[in-house]
Amino acid sequence: MRPILSALALALAAAPAGADDAGSKAPRVELVTTHGTMVLELDPANAPVTTGNFLQYVRDGHYDGLVFHRVIPGFMIQGGGYDTEYGERPTRSPIENESRNGLSNERGTIAMARTSDPHSASAQFFINLVDNPGLDGAPGRWGYAVFGRLVEGLDVLDKIGAVPTGRGGPFPTDVPQAPVVIQAARVLDEG
């Protein structure tokens, strides 16, 4: 028993400080908006494809200058596709839907927006203003893939969620009447 404890003590002493923490650290992304800054912590363990896709769009500068073009109080805010003139940015190919990953569309979580095709998500995302379990995947039903959560800026989320909305560009409703711009999106920590 004593040799095993000694070997364990030596192994722990040789490990660099914080080695376990560094391996488990999640990627973080900062969204600087006209209404304040939000920080997202992503979940590559449960949503590897979605997290990798989002991080690549951030690194490419895709989100800089785009708007939250859809805001529904008591539901969610959506962005990542349109500039202030409603011009649509080009995207890469759609990704696989990871909505059955065990993560739920809870208040403050980020998920991928998509069309009725479950595997159509590319760059657009939304952040839940409230718990929206009806958007979760379930056996026999595709949902909207959650891949992270806000760790800073819940007040900014609520501020954006309360802006006046109406008609704008090609959209008949839910468009902020004063643009809510993502001024910059950057990776703070690769994880």
Protein topology:
Layout (H helix, E strand, L loop, with lengths): L1 H13 L4 H6 L3 E6 L2 E7 L5 H12 L6 E7 L3 E8 L25 E4 L12 E4 L17 E7 L1 H8 L3 E4 L2 E6 L4 E9 L2
Antiparallel strand pairs: 1-2, 1-10, 2-7, 3-4, 3-10, 4-6, 5-6, 5-7, 8-9
Structure commentary:
Helices cover 20% and strands 32% of the residues. The chain has four helices and ten strands; from the N terminus they run H-H-E-E-H-E-E-E-E-E-H-E-E-E. The radius of gyration is 19 Å and the shape is globular. A hairpin with a 2-residue loop joins strand 8 (165-168) and strand 9. The chain has an eight-stranded antiparallel β-barrel. Strands 8-9 form a two-stranded antiparallel sheet. The protein has helices spanning 2-14, 19-24, 48-59, 154-161; strands spanning 28-33, 36-42, 66-72, 76-83, 109-112, 125-128, 146-152, 165-168, 171-176, 181-189. With 191 residues, the protein is of the alpha+beta class. It has one domain: Beta Barrel (Cyclophilin), CATH 2.40.100.10. The relative contact order is 0.25.
